[in-house]
UniProtKB/TrEMBL annotation:
Assigned protein family: Belongs to the asp23 family.
Pfam families per the UniProt record, alphabetical: Asp23
InterPro entries according to UniProt: Asp23
Protein name as catalogued: Alkaline shock protein 23
Length: 131
């Protein structure tokens, strides 16, 4: 899930003085995107892999799960893999995820995203209380 083409995303500082480069680890972008996606109403969880599921069962929260980042000549591309709640409008929820992820990444890192692709990997049904 955490496939990257470059170890760090490099940005040039924008201001009156050129103070140097800013480097952001791809894991940071994954965490930002994952938290932004889970904030959307209707998103039940992010899809993880076996390792992240084991870590979460041991009590540690994995924030970057369900996100794949790729930096190419065209720009930054984000893939979001999530599970939605039963009964929500999938197209509307996916659009909200795209907008939220794009806006949050731009606000926090000043990076423009080329694509934000949303992959709905499942539907979460509510279980009756006591089961």
């Amino acid at each position: 899930m955490a496939e990257k083409t470059a170890p760090y995303v490099r940005m040039q500082s924008k201001g009156a003085q050129d103070l140097g480069n800013i480097e952001v680890a791809p894991e940071v972008l994954e965490i930002i995107a994952s938290i932004a996606a889970t904030d959307i109403e209707g998103v039940a969880s992010m899809r993880g892999n076996f390792a992240s599921d084991v870590v979460e069962r041991l009590g540690k929260k994995v924030h970057g799960k369900g996100i794949k980042t790729e930096l190419s000549e065209e720009g930054l591309m984000i893939d979001v893999y999530c599970v939605v709640n039963y009964g929500v409008s999938i197209p509307k929820t996916a659009l909200k995820i795209q907008e939220q992820v794009r806006q949050t990444l731009e606000n926090m890192t000043s990076l423009q995203t080329q694509e934000v692709n949303v992959h709905i990997t499942g539907v979460q049904f509510e279980t009756p209380a006591g089961e």
